[in-house]
Amino acid sequence: MSRVIKFDHPLIKHKLTFIRDINTGSKEFRELVTEVSMLMAFEVTRNMKLEKREIETPMQVMESEVLAGKKVGLIPILRAGLGMVEGMLQIIPSARVGHIGLYRDPDTLKPVEYYCKLPQGIENRELIVLDPMLATGGSAMAALEFLKEKGANPEMIKFVCLIASRDGLNAVQEAHPDVDIYVAAIDEILNEDAYIVPGLGDAGDRLYGTK
User: Between the CA atoms of 107, 109, 114 and 118, what dihedral angle is there, to the nearest 10 degrees?
Assistant: First the structure.
């Protein structure tokens, strides 16, 4: 079974409180999502491999460590996942960015794909899939399955979200036991419309000021 890595850093908890708050406007909401994404990026990239490189400091020649040529792809699930991209790029500026467009059918609550554009060579990239909310898990499962069908290495895929429901986590773990999940908070309840409670509402609407 895949791992679920839940963040307990005080800064993430603090910022997530204001992300959840209904009184937080779109500008501040976007800034907070970017900041939390940056903080999460440190843990998401913890296991990246390093290699030795010889450099010269102002004092002497030495061996130091750099990333071992790891190619990274950021894959936001449109549209809310876009809100997490900038924070990740601040930490991993060389990452390529792909996009997967999914929407939830209001009647069936099932994900429907409408767009996909991926970086070249995804089979050799560490892919970080981004979506602020993991509710039923439908969109996450569909995106992960699509990446695998396109040739991505399952052991090089990670899923990153701000808030997940317990049911959504269980569903993704069962469908994709080879993909680790990184989450800032876990809420226990989904309402009748499959929204996470207490959650933060519709992440896309709050990012972009739509309804």
Answer: 180
* 137 secondary structure, DSSP code: S
**pTM score:** 0.90
Strands 126-130 and 99-104: unpaired
- Name beta bridge partners: 115: 101
Amino acid 112 reads: V
- Tell me which of 79, 96, 104, 178 is the catalytic residue: 104
CA distance 64 to 51: 8
Q: Is 108 a catalytic residue?
A: yes
Cα angle, residue 161 at apex, residues 168 and 119 outer, rounded to 5°: 110
Residue 193 among the catalytic residues: no
First-last CA distance in the chain: 37
For residue 139, what are the contacts with CB-CB under 8 A and spacing of at least 6? 77, 102, 104, 111, 131
46 is known as an active-site residue: no
Would you state the structure tokens that stand for residue 79, as one six-digit string? 């549209």
Catalytic-labelled residue, pool 96, 167, 178, 205: 205
Give the whole-angstrom CA distance, residue 96 versus residue 73. Answer: 5
The predicted-structure confidence for 171-199, as pLDDT tens digits, reads as follows: 999 999 999 999 999 999 999 888 999 99
Q: Are strands 180-187 and 157-165 parallel, antiparallel or unpaired?
A: parallel
pLDDT digits (tens, 9 = 90+) for 107-148: 776 777 888 899 999 998 999 999 999 999 999 999 999 999
